[in-house]
From TrEMBL:
Subcellular location: Cytoplasm
Reactions accelerated catalytically: 1-(5-phospho-beta-D-ribosyl)-ATP + diphosphate = 5-phospho-alpha-D-ribose 1-diphosphate + ATP
Pathway participation: Amino-acid biosynthesis; L-histidine biosynthesis; L-histidine from 5-phospho-alpha-D-ribose 1-diphosphate: step 1/9
Subunit relationships: Heteromultimer composed of HisG and HisZ subunits.
BP-aspect Gene Ontology terms: L-histidine biosynthetic process
Upper classification of the organism: Bacteria, Bacillati, Bacillota, Bacilli, Bacillales
Gene: hisG
Name of the protein this chain belongs to: ATP phosphoribosyltransferase
Amino acid sequence: MTDNGILKVAMPKGRIYKQASKLFRQAGLPIPEDFDDSRKLIIPVPEANMEFIMAKPVDVPTYVEYGVADIGIVGKDVLMEETKDVYELFDLGIARCRMSVIGLPDWKPVIHPRVATKYPNVASQYFRERGQQVEVIKLNGSIELAPLIGLADRIVDMVETGQTLRENGLVEMEEMFQVTSRLIANRVSYRLKNTAIQALCDRLGQSMTVQG
Ligand SMILES: Nc1ncnc2c1ncn2[C@@H]1O[C@H](COP(=O)(O)OP(=O)(O)OP(=O)(O)O)[C@@H](O)[C@H]1O
Ligand SMILES: O=P(O)(O)OC[C@H]1O[C@H](OP(=O)(O)OP(=O)(O)O)[C@H](O)[C@@H]1O
């Protein structure tokens, strides 16, 4: 657990970082641009009394649960899949997309369909709640390949622009839920660093209201 005044922030590398750093800058937090394309994993942001820990998105809840980061930014998709013991504080409204059930347009129901996904827990719960028996196959990327090459009947994956589906002749069969990125906090940090965390939430909230 960190005990100095610096707020340690688990920041996802990749598509969320660009939007998150823009949001922080709009809120008046001076995130240096030199690090936007950097390979550095620990980035000091002394002017904002913060330190960014550059993490793989799926690992952000783990860093926050263990308290090596006080707060973190993570997609709702990852938060639902990982079910870590953290506080979800704030919907940042960035990295907007949706989780959907996807298949080939000529898909026909089968008794025990196979569903490929990066999100086995989310997918299992979704079909269980609907009384549908499926076999879930965990993949780590290029999920859209699975129905094209006969590994799975359907997939559960993220859709943003729909370009990946269009280019691969797939269709969205059901939208499961909307996804945006959330600010999460370690339970102990939330108490010990409440003033700093609350001040950050207020600044981000005000800036988001002004930006509309
Ligand atoms: N088109 C999209 N596809 C997937 N995730 C998206 C998309 N748009 C926004 N997101 C959000 O961005 C988050 C991080 O996505 P990103 O692709 O950067 O991570 P990742 O796939 O875990 O990274 P990596 O490719 O390094 O494994 C997702 O968890 C989701 O909340
Ligand atoms: O609707 P779109 O705008 O096309 O975005 C959706 C695609 O983006 C993501 O893949 P990503 O680029 O993260 O690659 P991956 O297959 O390695 O996960 C996601 O898994 C979809 O494949």
